[in-house]
Design a protein that fits this description.
Order of helices and strands: HHHHHHHHHHHHH
Oligomer: single chain
Radius of gyration: 20 Å
Shape: globular
Helix content: over 70%
Largest sheet: none
Strand content: under 5%
Length: 323
């Protein structure tokens, strides 16, 4: 482990702690130590802020990891967590739930739970479909095309549902699509943590084969890499990580593309173990920072990530064009 890598990790850990503390004290009220760890009238507000920081940390770990796996497997720096259509199908599942349950009165916590559950079910169904059809596609590009077609189909159905939706249902769906992080309860965070831990464990199993895969198909086979097994693991890990976050936070755009790009700029892109760790650390810093900006400006999280992400992707395209 090089000294540069240790320094980068130390800086990112310090930044994570710093922006987390800033996030905890960002809102309409200023809280003190007793509000978080003692008996106070502001305990509920403190719990909401703690939940906000925790869910941003989890999202910062999972979304960049999903994007990192996609980019390394497809050898494309513009590949993201939604390349297989998982995010689109999760959005479609939520749209079906919101638009067809508008006349059912439920408490807010149940409404949010069922919304998340519908997103997870839709994403898992697509993940099972991807695992089933992946055997049919020997070429990686066909899997990308399949994901694109699924995304286009899901987007068309969502547009159709929006066209015929009631005003309140449409508003609820739009609010969900903005990427809210204030409504995630502690129990939902426990569920999200379990899903992400499973996804991280599967991701761990993919890093070594991805090192061989990055050197070419022939070398990977001579290195003993089971390419079919690797494809299944990448689909499983990336789908689970992106689907779980989408279920509880809504679609979070561009983070899964730009974080791996920045990590390759600041450290050797060939060292995938270190790249994976840097992706998780930098992802946590960026997600919590965007959450702070969202709270202070009252602008939705997805809008902020898009404003930041689109220029970065344009610069990536221009840089590739020069090369």
């Amino acid at each position: 482990m090089s000294q540069k890598f240790r320094i980068l990790c130390s800086i990112l850990i310090v930044l994570t702690v710093a922006v987390s503390l800033i996030n905890l004290n960002t809102g309409f009220l200023s809280l003190n130590f007793n509000d978080f760890f003692g008996e106070s009238s502001n305990n509920q507000i403190a719990e909401i802020r703690i939940n906000r920081v925790l869910v941003m940390l989890l999202a910062g770990i999972s979304i960049p990891t999903s994007g990192f796996l996609m980019q390394e497997y497809f050898q494309n720096p513009l590949a993201g967590p939604d390349i297989l259509g998982i995010t689109s199908v999760a959005s479609l599942s939520v749209a079906f739930y919101i638009f067809f349950s508008y006349n059912i009165s439920l408490p807010d916590f149940l409404q949010n739970s069922f919304m998340s559950l519908s997103s997870i079910i839709g994403s898992l169904l697509l993940m099972l479909l991807l695992l089933a059809v992946s055997d049919k596609f020997q070429d990686k590009s066909y899997l990308v095309i399949f994901g694109f077609l699924v995304s286009a189909f899901a987007g068309a159905i969502v547009s159709l549902l929006q066209f015929y939706a009631e005003n309140q249902s449409l508003k609820n769906y739009i609010l969900w699509s903005f990427g809210a992080n204030n409504l995630v309860s502690r129990n939902q965070i426990y569920v999200l943590s379990i899903l992400i831990l499973i996804g991280i464990f599967v991701s761990f199993k993919t890093i070594k084969p991805l090192i061989g895969n990055s050197l070419g198909t022939s070398y990977a086979k001579s290195f003993g890499v089971n390419l079919h097994h690797l494809k299944l693991l990448v689909i499983l890990a990336s789908s689970l990580l992106s689907a779980s976050v989408t279920a509880f936070l809504g679609p979070v755009l561009f983070i899964g593309i730009i974080v791996p790009h920045f990590c390759r700029l600041i450290y050797n892109p060939a060292k995938l173990w270190q790249q994976w760790i840097l992706n998780m650390l930098l992802g946590m810093v960026m997600m919590i920072l965007f959450s702070v900006i969202a709270e202070k400006s009252q602008i939705p999280l997805n809008v902020i990530s898009s404003i930041f992400g689109i220029p970065v992707i344009l610069m990536m395209l221009l840089r590739q064009n020069k090369v």
